[in-house]
Specification:
OB fold (Dihydrolipoamide Acetyltransferase, E2P); 71 residues; mainly beta
Amino acid sequence: MSIEVRAPMPGKIVGILVKEGDQVNADDELLILEAMKMENPIYSPMAGRVIDIKVKEKDKVESDQVLMILE
C-alpha cells in the first residue's frame, strides 16, 4: 500500500532530506518547505520506503500537492 505525502500549504521546497529507495520511520523528516518566511519540516506519516519523489529543491508547490510517495 502506498501513501502520498502532500504539501500542507503553498510554499517552496528548500531541502529534500531523503532519496528514492531510502527506508524511513514514522515521524522522520522528509522535506523542508518554506512558507511565510518560515521553514516547515514535512514528516513521514508512516514507516516505509521512499518510492517516488515528485519535487526538487527550489520548486514552488501548492497546498495539497503530492510531494513524494511512500510504500
